User: What shape does this take?
Amino acid sequence: MRRVIFTSFVFSVAMLFAPGAFLPLGAQINAWGYSVGFEYFLDNTEFKRSNLTQDQTLSAVRLSPALQLNWGEGHGFVAGFTALRHTGSTAFVDDMQPVAYYRFERKDQRLFAGLFPRSEALKGYSDFFFQDSIAYFRPMLEGLFWQWGKTDASFLNLWLDWTGRQTASTREAFWLGASAGWRRGVFFTDFRSSLYHFALTASAVSGQRVCDYALTELSLGLRKEKLGPFENVLVSFGSLAGLERERNVSGNTHLPVGMIGRLQLGFRRIGSDNVFYFGAPRMLLYPKLGNAFYWGNPFLRASSYFRSKLYWDVFRSDALHLQIASRFHHSELQWFFEQLLVLQLNLNRWWKKRFRTP
Assistant: This one.
């Protein structure tokens, strides 16, 4: 692991002192710089009495340095790594992943290709699609992302995340997704969707089947930045529909449908985020496939679910965000509790530099 870190460091330094060697011939570099992301999270759940999800405490530190070169009109290349260490671990680094992607941003278009941060692309996807541990431990997308428009206005995006290369012991797997939004004054509509294809291993395994899991969320609502003493007020209602199937198995195709509602509001640095679900139970293949197949909130295995998050943004800026929060979950006719602390630090510096590659 230390050898990997050393190799990544050497590559980053090489980019810093000889950036033209990594760009297309004739590229006119406009700017180059670095960014350093730091994150510490502590997520303690008290779910011991639940039959649907796990009781656990997640705590780790993540460091994500990267270098970026910009050229032409909107073209850029980013390279670096992201390293995670669980608090209390005896390892130097518990997990490390490369960051390397081409990015294009111009007016109302964005394109990423390669290995890029999940937080850059999948904004707006709730934990019905991807629970918190996915952001903690799988922060990178490996594939493509394209968007037209602005996320805080009207937009459309498409994405691909390849999560499993087929081997003798690993199943081929990938995500496809699309989302869209429309804004007109205080009114909005949002659409989110994803499809997970969970195929087979290269070596035949008795009883193994190709599985598919699709989820779509369509919501209508109102959003207002200021409403009396409150900030960022949001009220929405919508539907959550899905497809779950294990191919070539009779009776193992399910089409769950339910209703969802959200209420969000803030007062200065204090806020509340509330969501409910009522409808058909989901994740019916969970006893067999577990979290390898389902990446969303396991509480959706019940026919009704309510969650309320109360948070305090101790610091809130582009460079520093410290949030302390409590979550209250109601499922299985009982209450469950969760406590969170997340610290995020983002530093960057840019230099205007013009030179042309050979």
